[in-house]
């Protein structure tokens, strides 16, 4: 049933699906005769609108709950697929669309529910004998039906607005929302990222408390089975702790998770002296306990360098808040854990001087290899250096500056100004 007059890469349906090229009315009618739906099919189409005017123009195209689709368009029998398209414009060539890139940047920076101004899912019924069911072709990537009709047919609309619209039009008090809802709530996260400067002390206190109590603190309830409870602000960190170790393949794996202030610190939420002092006390305990535990593991007679997991690197941010003794201990132990890597590389380099069996070219290859390993080792050491408060302050300023730029660019896009 396939059209053999075209190579796949030149086939109109291939170009429609893979290259986002339009399908002519003539070709649509031709392929509809071959690949039409076998029965009435409920189908969905997701649209994302960049500005209020774009949405208004679309809504004005609907009369008495009916709308035509005058050119071939993509529909899906899966509502969830259409919902994804309503949340964000999809394009294989988004890097050519600066406005789309700015929308994605805003979406990622603040955790919005959608990119753009609003999303709409159109629900309609494609009559039996109409449309192009791509499952009948070899060009389908996901369930998809191409559909077009000059006749106005019934449609249902499901509209979702971005969080900024929701906050402004539902008169949401951002501080009251933070106090009355979970910090893990998606809108809470958006508020924290987007409206950081407008959060009051009560909201900041709740966020701080959330970090400390998301999981039971080993500071308050020491574990009796030698495992250490993970303590952080995001639930997914429970499976990916910031510090862990395992003596060998057979032994139990233990985890030591640091309090993961990093994302909140860069927003400048905890800048008061009182907050800094509280973080310092926690950081001192975390760094000392993690460092001593890592040192004990290295000293254990069952220590297996090939299978033991020791990772202290993610402690470097809270090290900026700690007293000098705790920060210094953390770095010394981290360096101690890496020392074998250096000795191994150094020994290999020295052995090359006595390798008369190697051709000069082979020696150069090995020298380049060991040089790269040494470079990686030094980069690990540098990246593990405890952060300074100057670094923290600079990071906060850079984050604020970048967020302001993103907001400014997004406002221009929504007002159709040139960003």
Could you describe the 3D structure shown?
This protein is α+β, with helices and mostly antiparallel strands and 419 residues long. The chain is flat. The chain has a three-stranded antiparallel beta sheet. It has a three-stranded antiparallel beta sheet with strand order 2-5-4. The two termini are 48 Å apart. α11 crosses α12. The chain folds into two domains: 8-164, no CATH class; 214-387, no CATH class. It is built from 14 helices and eight strands. 26% of the residues are buried.
Map the helices and strands.
Layout: H1 12-18, H2 25-35, E1 41-49, H3 52-60, E2 66-75, H4 79-87, H5 98-110, E3 118-126, E4 132-133, E5 145-154, E6 156-161, H6 163-169, H7 174-180, H8 186-194, H9 201-213, E7 244-246, E8 253-255, H10 262-265, H11 273-299, H12 324-352, H13 360-383, H14 389-414
Antiparallel strand pairs: 1-3, 2-5, 3-6, 4-5, 7-8
Helicity level: 40-55%
The low-confidence parts are 214-249, 251-258
Shape: flat
Straight-line distance between termini: 48 Å
Structural class, from secondary structure content? Answer: alpha+beta
Chain-averaged pLDDT: 79
Sheet bearing the most strands, described?
3 strands, antiparallel
How many beta-strand segments? Answer: 8
Order of strands, widest sheet: 1-3-6
Computed Rg? 29 Å
Give helix and strand order, one letter per element, not per position. Answer: HHEHEHHEEEEHHHHEEHHHHH
As for the number of domains, it is 2
**What's the helix count?**
14
Strand content: 5-15%
């Amino acid at each position: 049933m396939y059209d053999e007059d075209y190579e796949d890469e030149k086939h109109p349906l291939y170009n429609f699906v893979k290259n986002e090229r339009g399908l002519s009315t003539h070709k649509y009618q031709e392929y509809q005769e071959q690949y039409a739906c076998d029965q009435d099919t409920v189908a969905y189409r997701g649209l994302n609108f960049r500005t209020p005017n774009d949405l208004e123009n679309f809504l004005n195209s609907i009369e008495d709950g009916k709308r035509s689709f005058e050119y071939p368009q993509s529909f899906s029998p899966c509502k969830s697929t259409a919902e994804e398209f309503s949340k964000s414009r999809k394009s294989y060539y988004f890097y050519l669309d600066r406005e789309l890139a700015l929308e994605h940047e805003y979406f990622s920076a603040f955790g919005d529910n959608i990119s753009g101004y609003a999303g709409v899912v159109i629900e309609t019924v494609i009559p039996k004998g109409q449309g192009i069911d791509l499952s009948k072709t070899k060009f389908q990537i996901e369930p998809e039906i191409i559909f077009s009709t000059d006749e106005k047919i019934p449609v249902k609309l499901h509209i979702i607005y971005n969080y900024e619209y929701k906050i402004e039009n539902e008169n949401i008090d951002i501080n009251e929302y933070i106090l009355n809802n979970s910090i893990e709530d998606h809108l809470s996260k958006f508020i924290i990222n987007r409206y950081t400067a407008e959060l009051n002390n009560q909201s900041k206190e709740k966020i701080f408390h959330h970090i400390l109590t998301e999981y039971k603190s080993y500071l308050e309830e020491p574990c009796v089975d030698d495992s250490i409870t993970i303590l952080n602000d995001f639930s997914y960190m429970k499976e990916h702790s910031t510090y862990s170790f395992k003596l060998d393949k057979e032994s139990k794996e233990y985890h030591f998770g640091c309090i993961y202030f990093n994302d909140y610190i860069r927003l400048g939420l905890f800048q008061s002296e009182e907050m800094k002092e509280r973080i310092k006390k926690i950081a001192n305990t975390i760094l000392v306990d993690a460092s001593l535990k890592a040192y004990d593991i290295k000293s254990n007679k069952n220590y297996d360098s090939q299978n033991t997991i020791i990772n202290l690197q993610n402690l470097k941010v809270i090290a900026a808040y700690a007293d000098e003794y705790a920060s210094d201990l953390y770095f010394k132990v981290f360096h101690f854990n890496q020392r074998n890597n250096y000795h191994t590389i150094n020994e290999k380099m020295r052995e090359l001087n006595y390798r008369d069996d190697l051709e000069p070219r082979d020696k150069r290859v090995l020298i380049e290899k060991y040089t790269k390993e040494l470079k990686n080792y030094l980069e690990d050491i540098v990246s593990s250096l405890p952060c300074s408060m100057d670094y923290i302050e600079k990071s906060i300023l850079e984050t604020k500056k970048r967020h302001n730029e993103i907001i400014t660019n997004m406002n221009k896009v929504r007002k159709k100004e040139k960003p």
